[in-house]
What we know:
Helix content is 51%, strand content 17%. It is of the alpha/beta class.
Amino acid sequence: MKNYSIAIDGPAGAGKSTVAKKVAQILNFIYIDTGAMYRTIGYYCLHNNIDVDTEEDVNNNLDAIDIKIKFVEGMQRIFLNEVDITDLIRTQEVGEAASKVSVYKEVRTRLVSMQQEIAKKENVVMDGRDIGTVVLPNATLKIFLTASSLERAKRRCKELEEKGIVADLEITRKEIEERDYRDSHRENSPLKQADNAILIDSSNMTIEEEIDNIINLYKKRLENEENDK
């Protein structure tokens, strides 16, 4: 039986996870948050005093990191060495660490292999930086979801403020732009739009509009596949 997949790539703060989760729910697919896997490695390094700026140090500790994805009431939970850390990896500090370790080839090789194995068995929606280009090069539908750095910074500040954290818009914008540069210029699997991905700029769109757009594109892709048979 053929499995279907939707790859959603894009820069930090574009709203990929929010949209991907809802699309997966509507289609009854499994949602895979690949960024959470990199955050898990970043989290482990931070809490074990491993220098995330030194590739050799990170690589030397990979065998001590056991990552499992489990689905609880339809929601993805991520476990590090059998401990559920889903709610602990969403800090700015962990995000920065994840961005740094994600450039290392051995880290990417291990996690990409995990992601591909899941996609072989399930219908999935995956979001990340290199899903359409590396992880799922033959995805049924590829989306590159983006927004202006200012709009992404506003969203990030709002998210933090809802958690009671005061955030500076310009500092947040600068951090996002720095991460964009790092993600798009890394040697291994840089952030870029796949040749056959559809660009969606969500700067002036609601989340509902983004979701409807992707669902409609997916249905259209299936119709085209049927017509081509």
